[in-house]
Fold:
Amino acid sequence: MSETTPTATAAASGASATERFLTDKTGMPAEDVDTARVDTLAAAVITAVHDVIRRHQVTYEEYNALKSWLISVGQDGEWPLFLDVWVEHVVEEVVTGSREGSKGTIEGPYYVPDAPALPSVATLPMRDGEAGTPLVFQGQVTDATGQALPGAVLEMWQADDDGLYAQFAPGIPEWNLRGGIVTDDEGRFAVTTIQPAPYQIPTDGSCGRLIAAAGWHPWRPAHLHLKVSAPGHAPLTTQLYFKDGAYPEADVASAVKPELVLDPRPAGTGGNEVTYDFALAPAAL
Ligand SMILES: [Fe+2]
Structure:
């Protein structure tokens, strides 16, 4: 795993993540704004900031440094990165806290819809000689009562052995290590991929400057990203981590949960295999 390559692509990754968000997501609605809700939330955030200023006796130098930094986050295209690393995990916790079925976690900034569809037994698209330990990831998708869900779609995306994502770092084939696996008649799937590497979030932009200034670390533990969906069920967005991986508990994005840690075993073919089942909650009415 290279420790220098990811930083070389920070600006490209940030710009790609911002562009992707603006293309794929619904932003603030232009109409039907709930004024009372906006008042409640905006006033609460501003009041919380006032409280920090009073409690920590913030100076004008610090206030101006904040202004300058906020401007640079936008210029670097790093708002999606900042929000998904330091804020999204609490939104996910609030939204899914009482939901049945498997645990989810944050989506992060590197999801791309419409990945190539793959059969229930498949290999993720990868380059010839893709670096990394081969991994067979298999399991079953059911509803919350354990009933199999044939035809469920398991979208997977992951970093390569250098910690880089296709479509966000240059020089990687468009759909490398990305795919949408469709489960068989028993809701089962078996995907051959490579075990991803831990990676640093980009460190040469504004988020990296914050991390350095605060003395934090920029690492995410190795993980597979997944989005599991089936008609009539609430889609599940999650990540799966690796026992014994580097940084299993110290995650800059605070997204690791005990239920999401895999324990792969040697498969006898030079690689590893691991089984993980997903249970989907009913769709919200
Ligand atoms: Fe990731």
